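Posting this for the archive.
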Amino acid sequence: MLSERRLEVLRAIVQDYVGTEEPVGSKALTERHKLGVSPATVRNDMAALEDEGFIAQPHTSAGRIPTDKGYRLFVDRMAGVKPLSAAERRAIENFLDGAVDLDDVVGRTVRLLAQLTRQVAVVQYPSLTRSTVRHVELLSLAPARLMLVVITDTGRVEQRHVDCPAPFGETSLADLRARLNSRVAGRRFSDVPQLVQDLPESFDPGDQGTVATVLATLLETLVEESEERLMIGGTANLTRFGHDFPLVIRPVLEALEEQVVLLKLLGEAKDPGMTVRIGHENVHEGLNSTSVVSVGYGSGGEAVAKLGVVGPTRMDYPGTMGAVRAVARYVGQILAES
């Protein structure tokens, strides 16, 4: 375990390096920070931090920079995230309040996160499997063709055409709509298969085939692989950090194009807490020079998806974590009120 004084020296190195982009020397540390010890003691502390792998000397520079291990300790021992100003909170609220549907909410969230953090923003759409059914609508398009519309508590709307094995009258359609909603409205999608499995048996034999077809379409909607969607924005922000990537920026950009990689980066939505992955903690090699800050968002205190940012390891962690958490909270409120 590091002594509190050496931890304070590490904090000062991280803060100075993030702020100046320049390797930090002992003389600068003692001038900028009230560490309460002599420059010689600071030099000894820096030597100890380097021996333990928390800081490193880049090339021939006299200064030191934090390593992935150093950033990890800094984040783990952080007193708290940086709170947003009243103006920033109002800007978030005003920007997100104008959203008209789920696509608009996600799009605005991506732009807002990218602007607040000046990094790459990633927002996962709410997953159907973690959502609740708000309403199921059935519309007649032709005597033997229906439209199934599923509306979730997160504002997501799924539409499917259903080709029926026989004509289905308006009376039967209204009956099916009412019975379906009485069973599934307000229930988790994961519960739906069990809730509707015996529904066809309660209809006339001539209608049972169509009811079964509608239910099959509904259940297919729940398990479609394409449901895990993402929106990404602010990729151009990475060009501001060219010197933070030791090789070239291309591997980072290529990794960001892979949706599967991004989903793994954000982590499981069922884990709603703040996650910070630093440098080589990211298993994808192209992202070894980046850090990922993510958190779950949702309504009713339950996460239905994740959002976060990707940037260089030389990141303002308290500020970035504060912005990500605040935006997630506002998005959750919007979903709860929608």
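Strands lie at 55-56, 65-66, 120-124, 133-142, 145-152, 157-163, 230-233, 275-278, 290-297, 305-312. The first strand starts at residue 55 and ends at 56.
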